[in-house]
């Protein structure tokens, strides 16, 4: 499949590699078009860096990674909802469009709040202990 064919493909993927490449395109699109996704990526890199510095336990890593991926996945769902709503109603105001977009945004907010709580519960005591030494 050449690159032009790839850009206009509307049929099913035939190989795992094709599926993987389209998933990668989705990730790139998320990063390039969604400002909040970029901010969350930066926050995740920072949290992982602090986690490495603090030598987190396996359990702490699992909670931190769960929180990070919940935020990423909710951002992806939010972007899907926004795109589908825009595709359906364009710039026309619609009550259901507003509800769909606001609820999708609420999903991101809940995931981000969970990540802040997990981050505080895991990182704050470890940083505090380190500063006491
Ligand atoms: N077609 C519409 N009809 C009604 N309300 C809409 C419509 N499009 C957007 N809105 C309202 O505007 C808000 C912002 O919509 P928009 O599509 O710009 O999201 P966004 O700024 O990309 O959101 P995010 O900050 O999650 O990336 C929505 O949460 C919704 O309340």
Automatic annotation (TrEMBL):
<keyword id="KW-0418">Kinase</keyword>
<feature type="binding site">
    <location>
        <position position="82"/>
    </location>
    <ligand>
        <name>a divalent metal cation</name>
    </ligand>
</feature>
<keyword id="KW-1133">Transmembrane helix</keyword>
<dbReference type="InterPro" id="IPR036945">
    <property type="entry name" value="DAGK_sf"/>
</dbReference>
<keyword id="KW-0460">Magnesium</keyword>
<dbReference type="GO" id="GO:0005886">
    <property type="term" value="C:plasma membrane"/>
</dbReference>
<feature type="binding site">
    <location>
        <begin position="101"/>
        <end position="102"/>
    </location>
    <ligand>
        <name>ATP</name>
    </ligand>
</feature>
<keyword id="KW-1208">Phospholipid metabolism</keyword>
<dbReference type="GO" id="GO:0005524">
    <property type="term" value="F:ATP binding"/>
</dbReference>
<keyword id="KW-0479">Metal-binding</keyword>
<feature type="binding site">
    <location>
        <position position="34"/>
    </location>
    <ligand>
        <name>a divalent metal cation</name>
    </ligand>
</feature>
<dbReference type="GO" id="GO:0046872">
    <property type="term" value="F:metal ion binding"/>
</dbReference>
<keyword id="KW-0812">Transmembrane</keyword>
<dbReference type="Pfam" id="PF01219">
    <property type="entry name" value="DAGK_prokar"/>
</dbReference>
<feature type="binding site">
    <location>
        <position position="34"/>
    </location>
    <ligand>
        <name>ATP</name>
    </ligand>
</feature>
<keyword id="KW-0594">Phospholipid biosynthesis</keyword>
<keyword id="KW-0547">Nucleotide-binding</keyword>
<keyword id="KW-0443">Lipid metabolism</keyword>
<feature type="transmembrane region" description="Helical">
    <location>
        <begin position="40"/>
        <end position="56"/>
    </location>
</feature>
<keyword id="KW-1003">Cell membrane</keyword>
<feature type="transmembrane region" description="Helical">
    <location>
        <begin position="102"/>
        <end position="128"/>
    </location>
</feature>
<protein>
    <submittedName>
        <fullName>UDP kinase</fullName>
    </submittedName>
</protein>
<dbReference type="InterPro" id="IPR033717">
    <property type="entry name" value="UDPK"/>
</dbReference>
<keyword id="KW-0067">ATP-binding</keyword>
<feature type="binding site">
    <location>
        <position position="82"/>
    </location>
    <ligand>
        <name>ATP</name>
    </ligand>
</feature>
<keyword id="KW-0472">Membrane</keyword>
<dbReference type="GO" id="GO:0008654">
    <property type="term" value="P:phospholipid biosynthetic process"/>
</dbReference>
<feature type="active site" description="Proton acceptor">
    <location>
        <position position="75"/>
    </location>
</feature>
<comment type="similarity">
    <text>Belongs to the bacterial diacylglycerol kinase family.</text>
</comment>
<keyword id="KW-0808">Transferase</keyword>
<dbReference type="InterPro" id="IPR000829">
    <property type="entry name" value="DAGK"/>
</dbReference>
<keyword id="KW-0444">Lipid biosynthesis</keyword>
<feature type="transmembrane region" description="Helical">
    <location>
        <begin position="62"/>
        <end position="81"/>
    </location>
</feature>
<dbReference type="GO" id="GO:0016301">
    <property type="term" value="F:kinase activity"/>
</dbReference>
<feature type="binding site">
    <location>
        <position position="75"/>
    </location>
    <ligand>
        <name>substrate</name>
    </ligand>
</feature>
